[in-house]
Amino acid sequence: MYGHGAIVSGPLESLIDLLMPSNVEEFDQNYVFSFLLSARFFIRSYELLGTLLESIPDAEPLERIVPLLGVWTKMFPYDFRDERMMNHVKHIVVRCADTKLANVVPQLLCALLARLTELENHEEELKSYQSSVDNKTDTVTWPTAAQLAQLLCRIERKLAKHVGPEEFVQCSPNLLKDPNREDFTPKPSTSGSATGTVLDGKKTCNLESYLEWSARLRLLVANEILKCQNIQERNKQFELWSGAAQYCLLVGNYNSATAILESFDLPPVARLQITWSKLSSTTSQQLDCMQRHAEGCGNLWSKQTEQQHGLGGEAAAAAAAAGEKRRAVQQQSVTAGPGSSSSSTSSSKPTTSGSTGSIVTRSGSNEWVVLPVFVDIIKLALKAREDCCVRLPNGHINMTAFDRMAAIVGAFTKHMSQVNQTLPDVGEYGTLCHYMQSCKLRN
């Protein structure tokens, strides 16, 4: 079924056939991404690849499936952690030997191997930061607010970069039940959803690791404030973290900024009435400004996604209005400067692009949203996938829902792959991660 020149629905078998058009020039990468992302509700990835292979007679060359394999290994490399998938790949290699594709397939596999090796290294690094008797860090010497914000941004980029698009489909629907509890440790989904779909269990936990990072950051900030012995020390901690949150906003790291601001709302921190009353007027004004700014971040990313993928004319107008509002708030933050005269950040003030001597700068409008609020992306994806896993009354697969899911997830993963990656120093990164693992929320 077509609508306005696009596929809106169809039986599973027909949609599978469209993955390998007879004319390679008709190969549609957008369709491939949408289908491969959400088709896993109805057919396992290794079964899909096997079905495609069986549809090509042994005497026929694999010229139609190799372009698909190239896109598949690039967009969904984590699918190939499955031994059953790799068995099909081995079969493809054998059938392509002594043909003109003999040199093409090894290049695809080299790129795939590099990506999976990078993932393995990342996972091993995360495991090394897990709390244990040997690696607990008792104290941390905090840098300035600007330096802290930059470290948080680099860690966020590193974590977000490794989240695979299929993880939004495979994650547990109960993932966000209670993310503020102290023992929040999200686990990968290990079975299909309640609708009776055939989802394979997750073979990665990058999405859960990133979500856990945000929860631990909230606990860390609250813990650092609560463990102070007197009001003066607490004031310094408030101003350090509020300054870091403002710097995060200025460089477009909404995820860290939101986590820090949410930590101030945790009951043990919110009830510190005397400490709140002693904060400088500048810090209080900045907190109010940042709270108003952060509240619209999720809606802003949603509108930007709709605008980029043409999901509605009204959404585009709303996105433009939201962008103007966001820029106005950011300019107000720039004018105020992060931190009061007593703040540890008073020696470093952010400036707009083109100025000199600034630690935090912005270089273009496309960098305003560098790290969106991750929970908001997950909420959008969880809502969208409800339509993906339900067949239409005529038994067709809902490709419109697939495209909507692809727009949300694809916007995030593509955006994070394009963000300039500046890795943090291993020492300071490891120290902070070790310390966060041992944090317990004080009362």
TrEMBL record:
Pfam families: RasGEF (PF00617)
Keywords: Guanine-nucleotide releasing factor
GO molecular function: guanyl-nucleotide exchange factor activity
Ras-GEF domain mapped to chain residues: 144-443
Biased composition annotated in UniProt, kind: Low complexity: 337-358
Gene3D superfamilies documented for this protein: Ras guanine-nucleotide exchange factors catalytic domain, Son of sevenless (SoS) protein Chain: S domain 1
Protein name: Ras-GEF domain-containing protein
Occurrences of domain N-terminal Ras-GEF (ranges): 3-117
Gene Ontology cellular component terms for the protein in this record: plasma membrane
InterPro entries in the cross-refs: Ras-like_GEF (IPR008937), Ras-like_Gua-exchang_fac_N (IPR000651), Ras_GEF_dom_sf (IPR023578), RASGEF_cat_dom (IPR001895), RASGEF_cat_dom_sf (IPR036964)
Family matches, as PANTHER family: GUANINE NUCLEOTIDE EXCHANGE FACTOR, PTHR23113:SF349
UniProt organism field: Anopheles atroparvus
Region feature Disordered, mapped onto this chain: 327-359
Gene Ontology biological process terms in this record: Ras protein signal transduction
